[in-house]
Design a protein that fits this description.
The protein is an alpha/beta fold. It contains seven helices and eight strands.
């Protein structure tokens, strides 16, 4: 697939080395206890497969990082909030229960065309792939209703998908892919998330105090990507950045 949606450019191998190496090193910082949270915004290339480049992704740094984490942790949870389905990561761990993949994504006539709610894994991995397909225009309020606990007027809470998964699966580490193409105004995306709505997902996962690897991903309106990931870096460091 190189040369189709994955063009060849000068410095390609160095780029792949930096992206993948950053995520592997970040995983090692978690397993060594050197860090509680590690960030690699140049990572998150979730479409790459073992034998195929795909969707601007050449080497799947996430899969390589998770393999490092599995040397130390019995179970790893992968959460993907990119607008595109995290197909490369799901495919890599589709037959194992040691990695649970959870993807929130636009579905239907949209790249890569995978991630149906009925795709749940096979063999030992059956029920360890979770897909939450969404429609155009998804906004902060609706996204949070899915992602995290919601209280109604009687103060009765529904757990939300992510909290339910974490309490049931009890992962030793979490990998969070923060593709910013789910933000409003993205050149390829069709969701309507604000910067703070996107960051609320990061903040929610952080609050579980489980070793956390945060990686980048998609995002095609560059000023929005830079703003969102800077703001989320601040959140992860406990710093409230002004607008």
């Amino acid at each position: 697939n190189v040369g189709e949606d994955c063009p060849i450019f000068e410095g390609l191998f160095e780029f792949c080395s930096i992206s993948a190496g950053g995520s592997i090193d970040a995983a090692n910082k978690l397993t060594s206890g050197e860090s509680d949270i590690a960030i690699n915004w140049s990572g998150g290339l979730h479409h790459a497969k073992r034998f195929e480049a795909s969707g601007f992704c050449y080497v799947n740094d996430i899969v390589l990082a998770i393999l490092e984490l599995l040397r130390f942790y019995q179970r790893v949870l992968y959460i993907d909030i990119d607008i595109h389905h995290g197909d490369g990561v799901e495919e890599a761990f589709y037959t194992t229960d040691r990695v649970l993949t959870c993807s929130f994504h636009k579905f239907g006539q949209f790249f890569p065309g995978t991630g149906d709610v009925s795709d749940i894994g096979i063999g030992a991995g059956k029920h360890y792939a979770v897909n939450f397909p969404l429609k155009d225009g998804m906004d902060d309020w609706n996204y949070q209703n899915v992602f995290r606990p919601v209280y109604n007027f009687l103060q009765v809470s529904s757990l939300g998908v992510v909290q339910h998964i974490i309490e049931w699966y009890r992962p030793g580490a979490i990998v969070l892919q923060c593709g910013a193409d789910s933000l409003a105004g993205d050149r390829l995306g069709c969701f309507n998330l604000s910067m703070k709505g996107h960051a609320a997902c990061v903040d929610f996962v952080k609050d579980f105090n489980i070793p956390l690897l945060v990686v980048g991903g998609g995002g095609y309106t560059i000023r929005n990507v830079a703003r969102a990931w800077t703001y989320e870096t601040g959140l992860l460091l406990g710093e409230q950045l002004n607008e």
